[in-house]
Structure formats: structure tokens, C-alpha cells
Design brief:
By secondary structure, the chain is α+β, with helices and mostly antiparallel strands. Helices cover 37% and strands 21% of the residues.
Length: 164
């Protein structure tokens, strides 16, 4: 069992014990981490990544605005490191899937930032982009970067979309 799972299990048991003990003497309370308290107060929600080991949420939401970053992940959960067209298709499909899980869609994307390790790949990305988006086009920026998180990864996108 991972340390995090042990700590969470311990916290759940303590919370159950303390809540039960407090109820016996007429008190009511709940335990929240500082992050949970902050998010509850601000209305920020996070949709967890499908990969339990991920240190990033899949989608964040505030006031009906969704933010997500996607990489070229295939339907089987494996990273796609093929050519730019294949990586672009996987990345935009992952974006579409994430937005739909969060209650939005590609036609609600307001802004898209595209990170490319080779700006010469921009034309190929744009061809795939036009299969996933239509007019009115989202506001967008293409940024050339020296590298991305994994060797061989050519594209990553960050999107802002309206919920609904």
C-alpha cells in the first residue's frame, strides 16, 4: 500500500472516530484539509485525472469556466509518440473527452494554447485542428518550446472552455 493511501485511510478512521465521539457529546464538525476548505470557499472544483498516480487534475472549474491541459494519450491510456498528425489527433481527442466528462464540449472552447516542439509541425497540427473545431474558431496561440514532458512528445494543449 502506498504511503498516501495509508495516510488517507488513517485520516478516514480518525475522522469517523472523532465525528462519532463528538456526536455522543452533542458536537457536530467535519475535518477538511486546508486545500478542501479553500476550494469550498472559492467554488473551485477539480476533476481528478484518470491516472491515480497523476499529480495533475484532469479539469479545473471556477464560475463555469473549465481549464484543462492534455497530452497525446491514446484511448488505452498509453502515451502516443508517433508522428505529429497521430499525436495531434490523440491530444485533441483527449481534450474532447476531458471536456465532455466535465460537462462541456469542443464548441465551447474559448481559448487554446498549443505547445509544439517544432513550429514546422504547425501546418500538420492545423489540419487536425480543423477536424475538431469549426467557426467561430477559439482564440488560440501556438508556442514553440524546446521540449515537452516526455522525449518524443511533439504537442500539448491547454484549453479554457465554458461549461454547458
Amino acid at each position: 500500500m502506498r504511503i498516501g493511501a495509508i495516510l488517507k485511510a488513517g485520516a478516514r478512521h480518525f475522522n469517523a472516530f472523532a465525528t462519532g465521539a463528538a456526536a455522543r457529546v452533542g458536537l457536530r464538525f467535519s475535518f477538511r484539509s486546508k486545500a478542501e476548505s479553500f476550494m469550498a470557499q472559492t467554488g473551485i472544483t477539480f476533476t481528478p485525472d484518470a491516472d491515480a498516480a497523476s499529480i495533475s487534475s484532469d479539469v479545473a472549474e471556477y464560475n463555469g469556466i473549465l481549464v484543462t491541459t492534455q497530452v497525446p494519450i491514446r484511448a488505452d491510456g498509453e502515451l502516443e509518440l508517433g508522428d505529429i498528425v497521430t499525436q495531434s489527433e490523440c491530444t485533441l481527442q483527449a481534450l474532447k473527452d476531458a471536456l465532455e466528462r466535465a460537462g462541456s464540449s469542443m464548441d465551447r472552447v474559448l481559448h487554446l494554447t498549443i505547445y509544439l516542439t517544432d513550429m514546422a509541425d504547425r501546418a500538420a497540427f492545423n489540419e487536425v485542428y480543423q477536424r475538431f473545431f469549426a467557426k467561430p474558431w477559439p482564440v488560440r496561440a501556438a508556442v514553440g518550446v524546446a521540449s515537452l514532458a516526455f522525449e518524443g512528445m511533439k504537442v500539448e494543449v491547454t484549453a479554457m472552455a465554458a461549461k454547458g
